[in-house]
Amino acid sequence: MRPKHVVESQQFTVPLLLQLFERSAQMEKLVARGGTLDYQDRIMATLFYEPSTRTRFSFESAMYRLGGKVLSTEQARVFSSEVEGEQLEDTIRIISGFADVIVLRHNEAGGARRAAQVSSVPIINAGDGKGGQHPTQALLDLYTIHRERRSLDGLSIAIVGDLDQGRTVRSLAYLLSKFERVKIFFVSPPEVRMKQDILQHLDEHEVWYAIESDIAKVLGEVDVVYQTRIRPERVSDRKSIASYGITAKVLHAMRPNAMVLHPLPRTVEIDKAVDDDPRALYFKQAKNGLFVRMALLTLVLEEE
Ligand code: CP
């Protein structure tokens, strides 16, 4: 069941997800004990063509907590030989000779797949392009929900924001389709609705979903509000963006045991007054990224 590469979330089965979540919980305990040196002979390269705070730092922290070593380029578009016209495939062929695993954030959708086709070591997709995927984000999102709720079957979730180009929400939708009796409300301005390929996938897997533009209609119906940014330049009615935000007033309409999640970074879509509410789990969610990425590294670095 061990994946060689982690390119897209469709490749995860429910048993593999549950194994990963169990291992992530073990990693949480391991970090509390100060980590391990078990991976001291392993090297991870982080190759980032786009900016990142959470994904790169958590992967690098994960490797250090496992005792491994890290090679890093956080601005590969400037500080790699792409500047000289080198193709991604050649860069990957070279780095796979220096590292045991490559964590790649690429600016083009499909970048991770291209890298996986030529790499001799595991490639982990840390987000590729607009409208691509960000599978490790979706894994930590699901881990957070699973940790709080114990089961993902029967989950009701509102996925809110700029959905057509959101790689985190695309990866999340694919993962959610693996579970039973899931209900997904896609809430967005009309211009940035979830793309047809995801809706078709949900139809094929008989997953219940609804397209909605009024968040107020779904707040009382869901276990999770998964909030994302809406970029003002992508919608015609910029004033309407505020109506998709989470404020203290909006919290009143949510279930008492609901969760507010966000892949972060946030701008204005979650008011800071929400941060102290016990339902606001986005900072805990980001921290869970460390444990899930440790678990994922141990999975892809396992000996045959
Ligand atoms: N959620 C996420 O991918 O954050 P970063 O861009 O900071 O990595």
Q: Can I get a quick summary?
A:
By secondary structure, the chain is α/β, with parallel strands linked by helices.
Description of the molecule:
The protein folds into 2 domains: 138 residues, 3-Layer(aba) Sandwich (Rossmann fold); 151 residues, Rossmann fold. The longest helix has 19 residues. The termini are close together. Helix 2 links the parallel strand 1 and strand 2. The protein has 10 helices and 9 strands. The chain is of the alpha/beta class. A 5-stranded parallel beta sheet has the order 7-6-5-8-9, covered by helices on one side. Strands 2-1-3-4 form a 4-stranded parallel beta sheet, sandwiched between helices. The protein binds phosphoric acid mono(formamide)ester.
List keywords for this structure.
five-stranded parallel β-sheet, 15% strand, Rossmann fold, four-stranded parallel β-sheet, globular, binds phosphoric acid mono(formamide)ester, 9 strands, 304 residues, alpha/beta, 36% helix
